[in-house]
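Before relying on records like the one below, remember that each one covers exactly one chain. Contacts with other chains, cofactors or solvent are not represented anywhere in the record.
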Amino acid sequence: MTLADQTTRIREGEELDANAIDRYLKAHIPGLEGTPRISQFPGGASNLTYLLEYPGRELVLRRPPFGHKAKSAHDMGREFRILNQLNTGFPYCPKAYVHCTDESVIGAEFYVMERVNGIILRADLPKELNFDADQTRALCKSFIDKFVELHNVDYNACGLGDLGKPEGYVQRQIAGWSDRYEKAMTPDAPAWEPVKAWLKEKMPADHHKPGIVHNDYRFDNVILDPHNPMQIIGVLDWEMTTIGDPLMDLGNTLAYWIEAADPAPMQLMRRQPSNAPGMLTRQEFVDYYAERAGIEIKSIDFYYTYGLFRLAGIVQQIYYRYFHGQTQDKRFAQFVQMNKLLEAMSLQVIDKSTL
């Protein structure tokens, strides 16, 4: 059994025209021969990712989801630019080769990048890795080290100074996600009113040192070296990247971080092995991040609650597409239940908070 990330059969309704893609790519990428075999990477609930296997060469294609999309979401050109420019300061971005703006080719914009072969961790650590608790803890710290490294990138030197507006970032995120959530409401979704009110009331000032915000930094978005799984060799999914408050990004990552002591309903939501023996707890994660970043974090409650609310917004946007029949992906049928669980988790944090 290989530990490298594997593709699967393309989901119904998400097929691509291999001949159209082949014609376009051969006109823009030299050296391609034969006809591509296309399969789909199973992860991800937003942009769709496919493997194009040519004889002797593998490429990865990214395109927006089918159906409804938020106005500013799924910007293929922006993600293409980030990959190629950020790589100079953060050498874990796959190289992107071509961005197609002609929607007649496959019905949407797309871009194609190199495939970085490696291990992507899903819900559980593969038994084949045979990690003990000390190795798992070291891997966890390496994961956080890369996060801190990203937040310290000189984005101006990478030519990305215009990628986002750090002034007023915290306020814009709270207002923006509140607006996006309301627009994605369905009759069966919770309103989140007490949480939204608390976030507005407890809003801190922007961080004094803005940085590159990945907005989706999780274990299933990093690639491990198959020959040395303790080493991270790639970071994926840059579609929501901007410049802003790194502590808001930390809150985003903590929202996905289900630890071993969390109750069973939360465990059902887990998508990465953050509960494995040796993995840091959320508080240990925050403490280690603060130590490596050289900052003091007195309370994480606001940022963690924001992360949970933002995650609910993403979940609800996806569920909205399923609710209205714009996607047939059965994975999304229970997303409204995940939304309700995220609200309950947020209310628990607020109830115990000293802010």
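Residues 210 and 239 are 19 Å apart (CA to CA).
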